[in-house]
Every structure is written in C-alpha cells, then in structure tokens.
Amino acid sequence: MAHDLPQRSSKPVAIWLLIGVGMIIVQILLGGITRLTGSGLSITEWNVVTGTLPPMSHHQWMLEFEKYKATPQFHLLNFDFTLANFKHIFFWEWFHRLWARLIGVVFAIPFIVFIIQKRFKASMVKPMIILFLLGALQGAIGWIMVASGLTGDATYVKPAKLALHFIFALGLLCYTFWFALQLLVPANKTTSLPSIRKLNVTILAILVLQLIYGAFMAGHKAATAAATWPDINGHFIPPGMVNKEEGWLSFIDQKIAIQFIHRGLAYILLVLIIIFTFRIYKKAGASLLRKTGWLPMGLVFLQVILGIAAVISSVQIVPNHWGIFEWLAQIHQLVAMFLLLSLVWTLFLSRQQTDS
Questions:
Q1: Which of 93, 185, 265, 288 registers the highest number of CB atoms within 10 A of its CB?
Q2: Contacts made by residues 312-319, CB under 8 angstroms, sequence distance 24+
Q3: Residues 265 and 133 reside in one and the same domain
Q4: Distance in angstroms (rounded) separating the CA atoms of residues 339 and 277
Q5: Same-domain status, 47 and 5
Q6: Are 39 and 86 contacting, i.e. CB atoms less than 8 angstroms apart?
Q7: The model's pTM
Q8: Alpha-carbon distance 28 to 337, whole Å?
Q9: pLDDT at 355
C-alpha cells in the first residue's frame, strides 16, 4: 500500500503534463498559421504584460499600424495594406503570443498547487527545472526570430532562426511527453530491446534533420520552386543545386537543394520505419510495444502523401488567401508532430525496465 501511494499521487502531475503536451501542439500549429498568413512581423515589440490585450480603440490600432509601417515587410511587401488587412495579421501573431502566455499560466498555477500538496517526488525536481528553462528559452528564441525580420531588407523572419524556434518547440514537446510517460507507464510495460532502440534513435536523428529541413522549406517558401512529383522539375537529381559562391551553404539557402534534401530524407525515413516496424513485430512478443508499434509506419505513409499533395498544390498559392495548400501544410505539420511523438513512444517502450 505504501508503494502504491506515490504512484497515485503522481497521476495528476502526469495529466497536467499531457495537457501541456496538447497545448504545445496547438502553439506549434498557431506558429504555422502565423507563418502561412505572413503575420509573424505584425507586432514589432515584446511586451510581456501590456501586450496581453490587443488594441482596444481606433487610436491604439493606428499606433500599432504605424509601428508596422516602419518595418521592411510593409515597405517592400505589404505597402498596400489597409488597417483591416493589418488587423487580420495582427490577430494571428497576438493569439500565438497569448497562447504562449496561457501555457505559462497552465504550467505555473498547478505547479504551485502540486508543491503545496507535496505531489512532487525528489526525482521530479530536476526535470521540472529543465522543463521551465526550456519554456523560457523558447520564448527568448521566438523574439530573436521575430527581431531578425524587422531590420534591413527582410520581409520575413530568417529561415535559420525559424528552424531553431521550431526545433526547440519540438524539443520542449518531446521532453514534456517523455516526462509524462515516466509517470504514467509502469516499468513492466517496457521491453528491453537494444537493437530496436538503436534503430529507433537513428530514425529519430534523421527525423530531426528532416524537421529542420521542413522549417527551411517553410522559411524559404521552397515548395513553389518545384511543384512536381515524383520528379523535381523534370529531374530526379536537379542540376545547379550548389551555387559556386555559397558552396555547401547552398544546401540551406537554395530552394531546389532544400526541397531535394527534404524529399530524399522523407524516402529514407519511409524505408527505415518500414524496417523498424517489421523488426518490432518480429522481436517484441506480446508487449505494449508490439501492439502500438504500427503507429510510426501509419503516420509516415500519411506524412509522405501529405507532403506530395502540399508540393503539388503550391501552384495554387494566392497571397493573403487561405487555400488548399495552406490546409495541407498545416495538416502536414500536425502529422509530423504525431510521427515524432510516436517514435518517442516506441523509444520509451523499448527501454530497459526500471522502477526509478
């Protein structure tokens, strides 16, 4: 009975963490909407407290609009924007920031309550500190990313900083999910399979690289560079991917090169996850890993289909209009997160049994 009590007391903490996982997923999706609608540079300041509420009067709206008019994006891209256009893009950036604040509240208030209730075991203290530090770091990276698009001739945020913001958000998502699994999944539900786990880690590493290139695709708006499949503008290995001046930097700056790598990594992941799934069914016996091991394969097939559809539909992009491409891009991003979490799940289930 004494052994069961800590397990019961940890369950509300695990549920709290899973709510955080859901909210982080929504936040990343809101980031995608912000990017697709070109809203990310509409708010030129980071006011933690006073920025919680949107402008409440016409005068306040005009003040914000005047600040936006001073940005390169307005001068070079949206110079014909009316106040109504500005309000539309302002909403999505404001809501993205508001949701980040809500995540902070949802994490902070129960955290204090759980301390009072003494629900945290000693082993939870370090992960909690890391969790809050990751959240704070993500906010800082978000502002650095926005600031990168407010100077010079930038009309959007820098793709490298967008990728950094995206990857750190996914890192926070995975860390929160793993922490919740440690509190929810009993040790006897895991199965020690070193070979499976090694392949799982390899796939996750490739997936992280693929997600970085997904961010480069978004940041450079590279889908329109080759709206064809299975070829890339008539080639399977497109010529001229490497710019002589940039050299290897072409693979993070040139649209065709970025799309080529993004597609290639997708095919590699598809093959590896198929192999991974068959190995699970061969070695995992009747474990929970075997029962749920099909998830990554199902999700990667769906992800490949969505990626192809998004690239092909990119010819239908209309500036400042939400259409089929934007829907596909958002669903593509959502499934990418589910694929990542499914591989974190299989990694957790293939670890060595432990009661710690």
A1: 93
A2: 312/227, 312/228, 312/229, 313/227, 314/223, 314/224, 314/227, 315/224, 315/227, 317/224
A3: no
A4: 13
A5: yes
A6: no
A7: 0.91
A8: 9
A9: 45
